[in-house]
């Protein structure tokens, strides 16, 4: 197999992963707070073998990890008192997982029997004093734009806690941790997001554009088929050359 086939094969490998990522985007287009992903593909220089000086170097397709678009999705009105959306890019809710603190944009929260505010996957939501716990016997919680949660009791608004909204300075420090959460891959420390605003009764939709993803899936399949044809043509040429060489000798 010569350079043309190797190059085509390297691109096919990245296309297969692009297909998986694009399909995952489509599968999560209705997931709260989901962020669009794409494969970062670069050229990788391939030097010729030292004992084959007549062969020229080649640039191969190289998978350089997954990039994410953390731009804010649109808000959807739910009216539910425990649904929250963050108005502000790069800002996250803080939740407590078995492996430590994690961060999410999915504000579809719930309350357990003890009154603890939790994610749909059972992670406690962290406030300024730790996990936020409300009194199930009191009124529905109200949340101000700066994240302060209060409950009505005998006509008085009692402070319950404050959502811990944090800003991640470098998004490349975030790693997916499952269930719509991210963790930090470095020793970076998130900073309080004092300029972000909480919208109660709203949820942030995914920022995936379904039309773009459908188009991309078609392009990926066409490109993969074209490269398969190039590899087959190269195989046929090599086979023909060997057969002709055999007849000459």
TrEMBL record:
<dbReference type="InterPro" id="IPR012836">
    <property type="entry name" value="FlgF"/>
</dbReference>
<dbReference type="Pfam" id="PF22692">
    <property type="entry name" value="LlgE_F_G_D1"/>
</dbReference>
<comment type="subunit">
    <text>The basal body constitutes a major portion of the flagellar organelle and consists of five rings (E,L,P,S, and M) mounted on a central rod. The rod consists of about 26 subunits of FlgG in the distal portion, and FlgB, FlgC and FlgF are thought to build up the proximal portion of the rod with about 6 subunits each.</text>
</comment>
<keyword id="KW-0975">Bacterial flagellum</keyword>
<dbReference type="Pfam" id="PF06429">
    <property type="entry name" value="Flg_bbr_C"/>
</dbReference>
<dbReference type="InterPro" id="IPR037925">
    <property type="entry name" value="FlgE/F/G-like"/>
</dbReference>
<dbReference type="InterPro" id="IPR053967">
    <property type="entry name" value="LlgE_F_G-like_D1"/>
</dbReference>
<protein>
    <recommendedName>
        <fullName>Flagellar basal-body rod protein FlgF</fullName>
    </recommendedName>
</protein>
<keyword id="KW-0966">Cell projection</keyword>
<keyword id="KW-0282">Flagellum</keyword>
<dbReference type="InterPro" id="IPR010930">
    <property type="entry name" value="Flg_bb/hook_C_dom"/>
</dbReference>
<feature type="domain" description="Flagellar basal-body/hook protein C-terminal">
    <location>
        <begin position="199"/>
        <end position="242"/>
    </location>
</feature>
<dbReference type="InterPro" id="IPR020013">
    <property type="entry name" value="Flagellar_FlgE/F/G"/>
</dbReference>
<feature type="domain" description="Flagellar basal body rod protein N-terminal">
    <location>
        <begin position="6"/>
        <end position="35"/>
    </location>
</feature>
<dbReference type="InterPro" id="IPR019776">
    <property type="entry name" value="Flagellar_basal_body_rod_CS"/>
</dbReference>
<dbReference type="InterPro" id="IPR001444">
    <property type="entry name" value="Flag_bb_rod_N"/>
</dbReference>
<dbReference type="GO" id="GO:0030694">
    <property type="term" value="C:bacterial-type flagellum basal body, rod"/>
</dbReference>
<feature type="domain" description="Flagellar hook protein FlgE/F/G-like D1">
    <location>
        <begin position="85"/>
        <end position="150"/>
    </location>
</feature>
<dbReference type="Pfam" id="PF00460">
    <property type="entry name" value="Flg_bb_rod"/>
</dbReference>
<comment type="similarity">
    <text>Belongs to the flagella basal body rod proteins family.</text>
</comment>
<keyword id="KW-0969">Cilium</keyword>
<dbReference type="GO" id="GO:0071978">
    <property type="term" value="P:bacterial-type flagellum-dependent swarming motility"/>
</dbReference>
